[in-house]
Amino acid sequence: MAILEVDGLRKEYGDFVAVEGSTFSIGRGEVFGVVGPNGAGKTTTLKMLAGLIEPSGGSATVAGYAPGEPAMQRQLGFLPEESPLYEEMTAVDYLTFFADLYDVPSDVARERIHRTLDRLDLEHRDRRLGNVSKGMKRKVAIARALVNDPDVLIFDEPASGLDPLTTNYIIEFTRELSDEGKTIVFSAHNLFHVESICDRIAVMNDGRIVARGTLEEIRDAHGGTEYHVYATVDASAALDAGRDAVGSRSGPSRSVAVSRENGRVRHVVPEMADVEAIREAVEANGGRVTDIRTETPSLEDIFLEIASDGPDGEAKA
Amino acid sequence: MSGERSAVDRECRRTKRIVRRSLDSLRRIGRIARWEVSRSAGTVDRKTVLVAVAMLLVVGAVGLSVADDGLGLADELYVVGVDGDDPYADVVAESDRFRAVPLEDVEISGDGTDSNVDVVVTRDGELGYVGENGEQAFDAFRDAIESYNENRMAEADDEVAAYPVLVTVSYQERDPLRPDGTTSPAESDGTDSGARDDSSTESSPDDGAAADSDGMTDGSTADSDGVTDGSSEPTDETRDGDELRVPDVGGTIDERTTTGTPSTLSPPFPFQSLLLAFLFIVPMNFVVQAYGSTIMDERIKRRGELLLVSPSSRYEIVGGKTLPYVLGLVAIVVATAVAIGGGPLSVAAVIPIALVFLGSTFVGAMLARSFKELTFVTVTISVFLTTYAFVPAIFTEVTPIALISPLTIVVVDLQGDPVTAGEYLFSTATFYLSAFVLFLLGIGIYREEDMFAQKPIPAKILDAITSQIDSISARVGGHWSPFVLSILGIPFVFAAQLLTVSLLFVVPDVVALPIMLVVAAAIEEFAKSVHVYAGFARGRFEATGRTAAVLGAFSGAGFFVGEKLTHLGQLVGLPELAVGTAAFGPELTGGVSIAVLAAVVLAPLALHVVTATISAAGARRGSIPYAVAFVVATLVHALYNLGVIVLVT
């Protein structure tokens, strides 16, 4: 059952369209990744879901409520890309104030705040936030998003600009939250993080969602598995042999990419059947195949391909 | 029966729900306010607080001292040798600049440098000076004598001291039989002269000249004597028989002259009350700086974003952030009132000023794009509002225009005079309504898209207005928004027109009236059309001629309704002034037929609808057509105003 539904969401600023017709739904407990280059419309989409920006068109519901309704805000924890904290306050005072705003009873708030800070391994809780590290500020910001124990979390670049250790800590913590049944909308530039924790992904470019689904579905739509065939023969002879072989089998329209690597020739083909044709061609030219590898494109490869294609490169919606 | 019961139950539940929501809302405002106080306390270290408090105390103490005694820099600067029973001793006693030394204690050295006095009044009534400061002391003593005489004059009732004074001058031939220019005894008698004039607004040139002439002659004689020989010659005019009298150096202080001419009258200036009233305004300038900074902080550092995603509405957030500053200002106002002897009326008059200070600072902080811009905005607001509040109050005892400032109410209260409810309402209603509308506009752009975006200020103003269009449209339908917004613009129209009236008050009518006619029309046309333009520019209205006509009609009708509120002006008699008439229209006198009355009532409605429609027609096509249409509408309006004034007066 979807806890978050988006239908034709649109945002325009004068003549500029920031988000165009975004449509997707997110099930309860799902981790949904939103990726895309800078200016793709990710943050605008997330802010529309959080009720911060009023959509120009379309609709969205979070936990059954329209964004901006107080009942919806109680169900939501929002972590913006930056951590704008009140630096003259301590972590505990800051979190207590927000718990108060969400009408969390003070004893519950106190227990929840300290438990969350324990989990985030946050030290110096009574130090002014202006005097703590960036990583600690980020942890406090995450704790603030959890202070009302929300069902839905929107994390916009939660690990942006942090050191690898803190980044891994935050990614791991996000995974734990997912395991606890929280629904998480997650945006990140580091696609490895998205790939590692998201159940489904939407790739945005120029304000549009250009690909959407599980990582496997997106991979299938944008290239899938590739086979790398390494041979010893002269590169040009092997290339001719390979091309002839592929052509004779009326193989895939996709051309065979050939490159040199450590004195060997690498042939990249999309089908297993092509591997055999290349092997035959190589042997016909007096060479031999030294290695065959299976390569799966990363989300980054797919993202770069989509981004370079522009909005018309949508392969699957 | 059961149906009635369930209806009552439903109503009860509804009421309970509203009460609960209101209490929740108040609770959240209270929480944010508490947090704002504790958070702000953390931004300022104790030393800074102590310095600020010390500065405020110093300012207050200096203000009180100046109001009470003057600056005091020249206290007992000069020493006058004079006997205690000498009439000149009263002059010394009244002035803080002098200290008296009995003649028997006067010591004068040969060259005067080691003397213990600067000025000496001999038992014969002769004046002289000695030492390095003697000449300056003597000049100052002459001024003190003049002030003493004027104060004695001021204590007496002056039947002609009414302001403003209109003078009709007619020149007459001087009597050739008296070439020295003096008048006959009968004419030179001021009492007769005053009594002879039919109106205090007229004076015969002979009277004035005679009085002046007499006075100046007397005075200059005394001056001349005193200054030229530095010592000795008492004038005959200063004596009456054997009795020593204070010399007449003021020009109007001859005992015989009990009435004054316009040139000798000074407008009544409530210096002390005015200065005390000003003490209310000073702390506001400090508080608005802090308030503007806290709002700006939320925007520049994007910290307000997290409050906006909380269940608190933006009204609650702004309410909570503003409440501590409102309470702080109220506390300061009450403390100031207690310190200077102001009553509850003074407090009630100053609070709307404080609210406008906060409201305009809030809007300024929402519009500014940097702290540098904020500084400019807050300083501008402080200067403008201080001027608006302070300058009219100078004329507290002169003209009803002074009542455009609530500070006038404070001055009146400090003087112990009564204030009617109508006068209080007239002075403060504009401030209360302006503060309300300013906060409304600011809250309209207290949202992510405007708070954290580097938009040009005009674009933000349009956004602020558009947010109110959206808010009104959601409740009563889109076309009603111009109607409501035109009414909400009335306080600013009223304030702007009153300010223009007060600025043109001292300008000759022949110049002031045409300016007032055009400016008053422009102010009204702007208030009627800017929201219509905002609606078109932001795509809230369909850009068709029919829509423009409908919106213009609604806007004009709304303004007509709101304009009736300005008839408060009639309560305090502003239309009696020529520029007041140009701004607010003439007051109808008796004997007007019903047809004329109906025409006079309905004609403004027609005017506002027509001119608002002209502006709306331009607004739908963009900014330049709007500007052109606005000018046309203003001219039509100004011509109408001129026609009405010509017809009715």
Automatic annotation (TrEMBL), chain A:
SMART domains: AAA
One GO MF term: ATP binding
Tagged with keyword Ligase: no
One Pfam short name: ABC_tran
Keywords annotated in UniProt: ATP-binding, Nucleotide-binding, Transport
Superkingdom field: Archaea
InterPro entries recorded: AAA+_ATPase (IPR003593), ABC_transporter-like_ATP-bd (IPR003439), ABC_transporter-like_CS (IPR017871), ABC_transporter_ATP-binding (IPR050763), DrrA1/2-like_C (IPR025302), P-loop_NTPase (IPR027417)
All copies of domain ABC transporter, residue ranges: 4-231
Keyword set includes ATP-binding: yes
Similarity comment text for this entry: Belongs to the ABC transporter superfamily.
Protein name, UniProt field: ABC transporter ATP-binding protein
TrEMBL record, chain B:
Record field: compositional bias (Low complexity): 206-220
Protein name, per record: PrsW family intramembrane metalloprotease
Ranges for region Disordered: 171-265
Membrane recorded as keyword: yes
Keywords: Hydrolase, Membrane, Metalloprotease, Protease, Transmembrane, Transmembrane helix
Stretches with biased composition (Basic and acidic residues): 236-246
Lineage: superkingdom: Archaea
GO BP: any one term: proteolysis
Membrane-spanning intervals of the chain: 48-67, 271-292, 322-341, 347-367, 374-395, 424-446, 480-499, 543-562, 594-614, 626-648
Keyword Iron-sulfur: no
MF terms (GO), sorted A to Z: metallopeptidase activity
